[in-house]
Fold this protein.
Amino acid sequence: METLEQIKARAETALPGLQLAIIPNGNSANPASLLVDHDYAVLLAQFLKDDSQLRMDYASNVTGIDWPDVVEKQKVRVKREFRGQEIEVDEIIEKVKPGYLEVVYHLYSMVLKQGPIILRLRTRNRTDQTSLPSLTPVYRGAEFQEREVYDLFGVQFINHPDLRRILMWDEFQDYPMRKDYQEPDDYEYEPTPHDEVLVKARQHYPQEAPHG
């Protein structure tokens, strides 16, 4: 199979306006990946599937990642007045780098027996801009996996054919795979309480009156 650099160059030539970034993995056992912008995600997926040299016809795995906000500290030199004189001192300032949600697709070619090509899509943030284009129109096998990412991370997949919870029940609130998720203390509506959850659930059940 071609190198990721060659695939990137051919895709950008085939899709004018497309700009891909190669994201190194940092682990020699795993390949690098391609970061694609929302506007070109479906077009790129279709290109990878249809291209005669690639034929990426199978999405084997779709996973979600939560990247919370990061506080970056930086030392800067500033001027301050001290006893009537202006002096320079070092100060530490904090800057918040907004977090985002990421969806990772592993694509293989069953026909040519090659792969994977790994695609990454990132939301604008983790709060009010959590939409990404669904790749289910290109890879039908991504349907349930995208639903799982929606259910557990809260990614809103645009043009998904049936976007609803798949693991948690409909009334469940929040997204349990988020890194800042806090487990509720009310287990009254837990449908299948067991073990430690059962102990917590019983604290919310009405106490039965003693038998006389």
